[in-house]
Amino acid sequence: MHQLTEFLTRNDLDVALAKKVSQLLSEAIKLKGKASIAVSGGSTPKGFFKVLSERDLDWSKVTITLADERWVAIDSQDSNTRLVHENLLQNNATAAKFFHLKQGEEFSDETLNDLNIAAKTSLLPLDVLILGMGEDGHTASLFPCSDEINVGLDEKNDAALLKVQPKTAPHQRISFTFASLITSKNIFLHSCGEAKKTVLTQALKGEDPFEMPIRAFLHHPSLNTQIFWAP
């Protein structure tokens, strides 16, 4: 299931989403003493990151991670980790913890296993998940073109994370699995622009998640994916 909220401007969206997310994180802290959030990369969330970083909450009890990451050096322009550090882990949010998906140089099976254990024991289930969406309907690094898409979308997969090698995008990736992401207590899709609105309309009309993986979230009977869109 899904719920679509449209905003007149991207700034209006950023402010509204930051307010909602900060409230959810604060509620989680009050309930259990800590909170967790996974965000997505790209240029779309930069404004949201800035507004969220200025919100007043107990950031020292918040752990931030990424829905997925490219296996590149942290100082690379393609690093989502760098994006988060430069745009979200600022202002009040400098007190937050960051759970690194990209650790070390070699992306070995041992590294993946260690990250799976760490994510399951210290991070999941997420209190808030902010998804993005590509022109091909991918979300996180669940790419329709990848050989890993069947495992990635398997709702019975007990792995939190998986390796992904997309065929239509550069870099090997590490991504949370669909099975782990749908345990999130609050799920948002942050999308901007008319081109993405066209992709979203296509995703909502069709049913096949292997054609457009974002559909797995939008049409899941027990999820309520909240879509925030602005021109």
Mean pLDDT rating: 97
Any idea how many domains? 1
Q: DSSP strand (E) fraction?
A: 15-25%
The neighbouring-strand order within the major sheet is 1-10-9-6-2-3-5
Task: Please provide the count of β strands.
Answer: 10
Low-confidence stretches: none
* Share in helix: 25-40%
Break the fold down into its secondary structure elements and pairings.
Elements: E1 2-6, H1 10-32, E2 35-39, H2 46-53, E3 62-66, E4 68-70, H3 80-87, E5 97-98, H4 109-122, E6 128-131, H5 149-153, E7 161-164, E8 173-176, H6 178-181, E9 187-192, H7 194-205, H8 215-218, E10 225-230
Parallel strand pairs: 1-10, 2-3, 2-6, 3-5, 6-9, 9-10
Antiparallel strand pairs: 4-8, 7-8
How is this structure best summarized?
The chain has 231 residues and is of the alpha/beta class. Helix content is 34%, strand content 19%.
How would you sum up this structure, described in words?
This protein is of the alpha/beta class and about 230 residues long. The protein has one domain (about 1-230): 3-Layer(aba) Sandwich (Rossmann fold), CATH 3.40.50. About 35% of the residues lie in helices and about 20% in strands. It has eight helices and ten strands. The protein has helices at about 10-30, 45-55, 80-85, 110-120, 150-155, 180, 195-205, 215-220, and strands spanning about 1-5, 35-40, 60-65, 70, 95-100, 130, 160-165, 175, 185-190, 225-230. The strands form two sheets. A seven-stranded parallel sheet has the order 1-10-9-6-2-3-5, with helices on both faces. It has a three-stranded antiparallel sheet with strand order 4-8-7. Helix 2 links the parallel strand 2 (about 35-40) and strand 3. The longest helix has 23 residues, at about 10-30. The protein is globular, with a radius of gyration of 16 Å. The two termini are about 25 Å apart. About 40% of the residues are buried. The mean pLDDT is about 95.
